[in-house]
Specification:
Largest sheet: 3 strands, mixed
Number of helices: 2
Helix content: 40-55%
Oligomer: single chain
Radius of gyration: 13 Å
Low-confidence stretches: none
Order of helices and strands: EHEEH
Mean pLDDT: 90
Length: about 70
């Protein structure tokens, strides 16, 4: 499995598309690290569903940070 790290310079959607294209090219899964959120990308994965999953993980990350600050 290949790991791709995206830090800055492109949008999240572009990063997901690049990871999806890489998975199709390599014909194996890719692990995309986008802003400290790990996304498993396969050649059969729907990019729109990936986008929704990314948003859900990001919301969860913010909720955890919010809970830590309120302690």
């Amino acid at each position: 499995m290949e790991i791709m790290e995206f830090i800055s310079g492109i949008t999240v959607r572009e990063a997901l598309l690049k990871a999806h294209n890489k998975a199709k090219k390599l014909n194996k899964p890719v692990l995309a690290d986008i802003n400290d959120i790990m996304m498993f990308v396969d050649k059969k994965t729907n990019v729109e569903q990936l986008w929704v999953a990314y948003q859900n993980k990001l919301d969860f990350k913010y909720e955890i940070e919010k809970m830590k600050r309120t302690r």
